[in-house]
Amino acid sequence: MKHQKQFKTNLITLSLLSFFSSFHAFAEQAQEIINEDAIEEVVATGTRLKGSASAVIDERKNQAFVADIMGSEQISRTGDSDAASALRRVTGLSLVNDKFIYVRGLGERYSSVRLNGAVVPSPDLTRNVIPLDIFPSSIIESLAVQKAYSPNMPAAFGGGDVNIRTKSIPKDTLFKVEIGASYKDTNDDGYTYNGGSDDWLGKDDGTRAFPGSVKSALNTYINGLSDISYRNIRDVESKRQGTDIGQAAAIDLNKNLAKALPRDFGLEKESLDPDASIKAVYGDRFDNLFGLDGSFGFLASVAYENEWSNAEKFSAVLSSVDASESECSTDDFTCYSATEKEVSTKHNIKLNSSLNLGYKIGGHDLTATYMMLRDTEDEASVALYQEPSKSLSIDAGQIQRSHLTSFEERELEILQLRGMHNLEWGFLEGVGVDWQYTDSTATTSIPGELEVTVRDEYLDGEYQRTFYNGSLGGNPYLYRFVDLEDDVENWGVNVNKVFYFDNAEVEIAGGGYFVEKTRDYRTDFFNYRFSQTQSLELAQSEEEALSIGSYFANDSVIDATDVELLFQEPTADDYLAAQMIDAYYGSFDITFAQDWRLSGGVRYEDFRQVALAFSRSAFDPALLADKLSADAIEQATVMEDKYFTSLSMTYSQEAYQIRFGYGSTVVRPDLRELSPVQFQDPLTGYRTLGNPFLESSYLDNFDARVEFYMDNGDNYSVGAFYKDIDNPIEALLTESDGRFTLQFDNADTAYVYGIEAEWLTELHSDLLGGAFFTSGNLTLSDSEVEIAQEQRGDLTNLKRRMTGHSKYVANLQLNYDSHDGMHQASVIYNVFGDRILAAGVNNFDDAYEQPLNSLDMVYSYYPTFNTTLTFKVKNMLGESFEVEQNDVLIRSQETPRELSVSFSYEF
């Protein structure tokens, strides 16, 4: 039986998995598949000319199913620092929010991500998909994007599967150090605050932490009433002490809780430091160490990045469907009923470390990997909001001011064991066995977030003061504390055997793949409630207004103010979830008549999932257990078992290959989408609500591709694809009292189809002392989703493109290599077509994210064999993120130009 320590959440998550216990016994005897890790390493030799782009061509040619491979040399050439930015160079892939990958124009739910073939959890609060910017390029050996389904992969496959394959132990001693710095043109000035002074390792320094006294008070006073008001404290304490403690004592206890919360979050505007980074890799290999046969090796790496980003943002609500772009200005209300202008400064710390240990003897290869990836974001922002219909405008004399300070710690910890064995024992001779076990934990913590929402007063268009009075209501000082823990354990085994005949070669493979996942999400809100007669004079100048987050830093100010601290618990804002997958597959790979290859198989998956939302009534997990009955768990449970098939045929000649493929797959709703919990989606800005009645989407996937390989190393490919989707999961909008709510639901049907092309070709072999070549890819596609009439809600269009789908994605590179090997340069262009960010409601059109043209340049100089100096210029065109509705701008955000330099030395 699995050790209880693997489920670090609480007794509830253990009980959720025990609900599936009748299915669990057999699964514990198996381990995970990674037959793609059995692919032999491809090593490029010769000069740098086209080497970085062609090094993985042989691997792609040998794949039975349509796939694209990107090696570490290619990633180095484009200057990308993480997996997310590198993957946008792959055919048909586009990058969203600098984190998520859309494959063939489909949303992130249609792409799956694995690490060395294993499923790992996501530290992102709002998505089950892993944010790929958390993986630094320094640990990546290659990125394999498989676009046609094969039975050895998880059946949760939509647009494609991304397998991040990390570097293994070196062939010889390796010690490499790299330092870098960069400058962004939007980072001259930005906002900082007192709480962020000592967080250089990406961990809170304790200034924001949830006080233990407040946790204790919640257990004492809430008792299902969901508040810590004067009245409730007085009632509880009076019952405990057997006498009325009086109103004054209750007020004093409440104010002591307010004093325990972090309160010194005033902002300052100052110059921002340049970004800086340092990376180091050290590894070695030892033969016959301590007299033992075989080879031992290790590879250790550490990477640290300190980054700042400052951006101006704009968001608005259209006043009329007849709004015209030519009449609109972000400074008036001709087209807008409400606008918000925000300046946001983010300070990111990335600290990543990994250690690989390996032992190889004969046909046996064992690897142990530990990885810790930390990505912390510290944000300070100022937003000014106007809505004339509510007398909020400069002309009306008042606008709304909001200050946000938020510190979010994200961490992914992974322990992975892998083995590859070529057996040579009697009747087992020639049998290959691959196995892996992975235990990983993702945690996200917001130890303390404060949002201050008050008013600025204007006279004749000139700022006068910042104030708040109790009659305004709302949540003027709102605290949020968040904790997420996601634990995933998966294991499996793959066994294969090749049989040789006169005119054919047949490989038979099979195995099992098993996943156990638990998630515990908790969030808590507190706010200040002022009396109707209470008035606060917060600032007399705009410069002084920056300090409103520290207005209550002094205890005497709280004592002198008629303010009450409340626990603002929504109806359901926490949830517990568990998931189990037991999978088995069998496959065949037949090569016959020398030129033909037929591959395919069947996969069976038994999927079980439960997600329970609740309102935290106490901090003691044992108390929560009493509130969750077996019937509630059963109603919140999804149980599915199904067979998934795939088939691929390839015809090969020396100069070309023709491929055809089919696969049946599934896209399941993630845990967040199934939980009826409200949250703010950072991509759309909408209040979002999960749906416990979501159903899985089933897909039929068809692929065809022709690949050409020239004698001089040039290669080309042209492909086509079609996907038919039953019950696609779409985000549907409703509107009530001027507020939009985005909720997930199943549409009727959807389809997507397209063509894609890729090339690598030499342009000139002797120009400017070197050779020029070009590489790139282009995808053209279309899609349609149909919403049933009964699901219409406030939607404008029942038929439209799928959310997140772009009609085109293009990646172009012009590359130069000098003949003497000392210079290398690339100019890289990327663009995607407009895509629906959110569906339109109430006769407004859908909101489209506009194309973003990205032009980067990378130059590397190699003064010695061991030394590299690299210069990068990113976003040379300086285009910004923009969203339009009815052809009018409704959202925008600055995207900085970035200039960076790095120096590396390999000892």
Strand elements, count: 42
- Determine and state the CATH class of the domain at 48-167: Mainly Beta
Q: Main sheet, how many strands, which sense, barrel?
A: 22 strands, antiparallel, barrel
Which CATH-level-2 architecture of the domain at 48-167? Beta Complex
Number of helices: 14
Percent range of helical residues: 10-25%
- How would the global form be characterised? globular
At CATH level 3, the topology of the domain at 48-167 is Ferric Hydroxamate Uptake Protein, Chain A, domain 1
Low-confidence stretches: 1-49
Domain TonB-dependent receptor-like beta-barrel: 460-875
Signal peptide: 1-27
Protein name: TonB-dependent receptor plug domain-containing protein
Domain TonB-dependent receptor plug: 65-150
In short:
With 907 residues, the protein is mostly beta strands. The strands form five sheets. The protein has a 22-stranded antiparallel beta barrel. A four-stranded mixed beta sheet has the order 1-5-6-4.
